[in-house]
Amino acid sequence: MSRWAAAGIHLGITAGIAILIGVLVFRLWYPPPYFGACGADRLMLLMLAIALVLGPLLTLIVFKAGKWGMTFDLAFIACVQVLAIAYGLQVTAKSRPVFLVGAVDRFIVVTSDMITDGDLAKGSQPEFRSRSWTGARLAGARIADEQARERLVEAAMGGRDIQNFPEYYVPYPVVARALATRGKSIDQLRARPDAAPLVDAWLAASHRDPDSLVWLPLVAPAHDLSMVLDRDSGAPLEALPIDPW
Predict the structure, then answer these.
(1) Longest pairwise C-alpha distance within the chain
(2) % of residues, the chain, pLDDT over 90
(3) What is the pLDDT of residues 135-146, one digit of tens each?
(4) Is the pLDDT at 66 greater than 90, yes or no?
(5) 4 class by beta-carbon count within 10 Å (0-12 exposed, 13-18 middle, 19+ buried)
(6) Cβ atoms within 10 Å, residue 80
(7) How far apart are CA 142 and CA 63, in angstroms?
(8) Mean pLDDT of 230-234
(9) 160, 109, 101: which is closest to 152 by C-alpha?
(10) I want to staple 40 with a disulfide (CB 3.0 to 4.6 A). Which of 30, 58, 138, 140 is the partner?
(11) pTM confidence score
(12) SS3 of 140, please?
């Protein structure tokens, strides 16, 4: 076997693994619209670049049929590649969205590393005491009393806010109408730079009356979006890739 054939086989195996990783990340950990909003696109590109280039390229360089120690060399390359992929998956998993929290006048994407295990254990309900592996769980958040307000003021000095504390989470319907009353009109969203085609396309596809809708900012780690809500119920309908600010 030539080195090119060996590298081609290695590339094919790696591509198959990369496809499986892509399905895992894109379909389970970061379902739309979180893939780009949380910066997973950059993480995936880096990880796949390492996976697709590092292993096959090293095989191309070192492979020689009949060479003594070739089995060890290939095993070493495979180990390096597996470790690189495992590290990339670990980083991607820690940054995955676990909650989408509606609070005050916006939605916030909460990633796995934004909540400590101790705070997670204090979640107000069972569904708020574990990290999701299949996209963000929808929740609301509200301040329970003056003592909680004082605690959040102190936490804000360290860069943490109500979305970082599952003990203040409530089922989304509890805050849905309050969020909707703070929503802005769809005409205001259309007026944003380059927003009109995106809004018009979504309205045409959803067959929704603009007067029955409002929108609020959706804050995410990499790119903020605009969340469209039903005006009456406050139910979130679609996160559009429009800068809300």
Answers:
(1) 75
(2) 55
(3) 999 999 988 777
(4) no
(5) exposed
(6) 14
(7) 61
(8) 95
(9) 160
(10) 30
(11) 0.85
(12) strand
The domain segmentation of the chain, as residue ranges, is 3-94, 98-176, 183-245
Q: Name the one residue in this structure whose structure tokens are 């997670």.
A: 120
Question: How many residues are given for the chain?
Answer: 245
Structural Rg of the chain based on CA atoms:
23
Distance CA 9, CA 82 (A): 16
Contacts of 233 (CB under 8 A, 6+ apart): 176, 177, 180
Partners of residue 213 on adjacent β-strands: 230
Task: Report strand pairing: 213-219 vs 225-230.
Answer: antiparallel
Dihedral in degrees, nearest 10, Cα atoms 182, 187, 189, 194: -170
Q: Give yes or no for residue 52 having a pLDDT over 90.
A: no
CB within 8 Å of 217: residues ≥ 6 apart: 105, 106, 107, 224, 225, 226, 227, 244, 245
Judged by DSSP in three states, 219 sits in: strand
Half-sphere exposure of 180 (CA within 13 A, CB side): 18
Give yes or no for a contact between 32 and 220, defined as CB atoms under 8 angstroms apart.
no
Q: Where are the beta strands (DSSP E) in the chain?
A: 97-103, 106-111, 137-141, 169-170, 184-185, 213-219, 225-230, 236-240
Two tokens, residue 192:
């944003």
How many whole angstroms separate alpha carbon 154 and alpha carbon 191? 37
Local confidence band at 149 (pLDDT 50, 70, 90 cut-offs): confident
Nearest to 211 by CA among 181, 187, 189: 187
